[in-house]
Amino acid sequence: MAKEPSFENALAFAQDLIRIPSLSGEEGEVVARIRKEMDALGYDEVTIDEVGNVVGVVSGRGEAPPVLLNCHVDVVAEGDPAEWEYPPFSGTVEGGYLHGRGSMDIKGPLAMQTYAAAALAGNAPGDVIAAHTVYEEKGGWGMSHLMKSGGLNPGVVIIGEATQGDIAIGHRGRGEMEVVIHGTAGHASAPERARNSLDLVPAVLAAIEEVAAGQDSDSVLGQASLVATGIDVLPESRNVIPDRVTVVGDWRVLPSMTDGGLIRTIEEAIRRQVGEGMEGLAYEVRMASETQTAYTGVSEHRNLFSPGFLMDGDDPLVLAAAKAVGRRGQDDEPAVTRPWTFATDGGWSQGVFGLPTIGFAPGEERYAHTNRERLDVEEARWAFGKHRDLILALQAELAG
Ligand SMILES: [Zn+2]
Known about the structure:
Layout: H1 7-18, H2 28-40, E1 45-48, E2 54-58, E3 67-72, E4 93-94, E5 97-99, H3 103-119, E6 128-133, H4 141-149, E7 156-159, E8 167-168, E9 170-171, E10 173-182, E11 186-187, H5 201-213, E12 217-218, E13 222-223, E14 225-234, E15 240-241, E16 244-253, H6 259-274, E17 282-287, E18 289-293, E19 299-303, E20 305-306, E21 309-310, H7 316-325, E22 337-338, H8 346-352, E23 357-359, E24 374-376, H9 377-399
Parallel strand pairs: 3-6, 3-7, 7-23, 8-22
Antiparallel strand pairs: 1-2, 2-6, 4-5, 5-24, 9-21, 10-16, 10-17, 10-20, 11-15, 12-13, 14-16, 18-19
Helix pairs in contact: 1-3, 3-9, 5-6, 7-9
Bound molecules: zinc ion.
Zinc ion binds at residues 72, 105-106, 136, 161.
């Protein structure tokens, strides 16, 4: 006898998930807990892939393409627990809110999605897949792996990042770039024996400003932006002339922009700034990268780049979603459609892999990553109920 897919049970499941900390790369325990719940809810198939994503399938009648529901399973660090009004891993429900790290980003919505799929057992024309992915908070390795490995073939992806009941249709992406300058180190008492790599910093900053001023704008997503956010110096001693300086930049990108394009543009701008006079210095422009290790033990060297995406506001799937969900308190009005401010795994599913993707979830974006993170319980109850209408409307649209 399968567990009843009620809102109350979903809320209790969300509390359980909050009580299991799950930083990126440490999601094993929370994934095991999700798998256990999917089994208890009577999912037809539950698997965990090689990077540790959990994929549950509720079979449909084969009359429409699958809908894929996605949340990530990692959360950001909690910081100083003393700064929290409620302990970050308590999962307390009080004052009408579910509190704690992950309550709205994203374990509350994850529980709603997981239960909404189970509630459609035997009633959906197509499969409903709940696929919850690792490493979203560090660039989306889990989602990019899930999309690359294929096999699921969803007609549409629904991302459970907070929209407060609106339909989200895209966001800018984010890249972290570095300009690494190489010179020759020396004792600060004898500058003539060294080649100070700091000498190139003014030209690099001017080049970044020049490229930033020429960034494109989009009427929905706003402007792409680029700004220098830090300078690292090696060696760090203050009586040594550094032979290696790294200027770090934060780049908010529009969907069409690629990291390769940015690197070339900055290289050209530095060359214009420097001209001939930089003998003894070399520089390299690249995306920041790191080796990431999944809790399953697999490693991959990855650029710190989360792509952006944008769906057409008049796309039939977007219109069907807005109509199905409606506006909370004014059901005959379609839901508001708008972009998110932050980046999500939708940049992979739509921006890179071209699958229609929208966002729908309870929760206010402004609480994400803060020590006041919370989810309005009544709003979550409303959104939980709306998932059924949303999934059925999207499958009806996909089936034509
Ligand atoms: Zn999130």
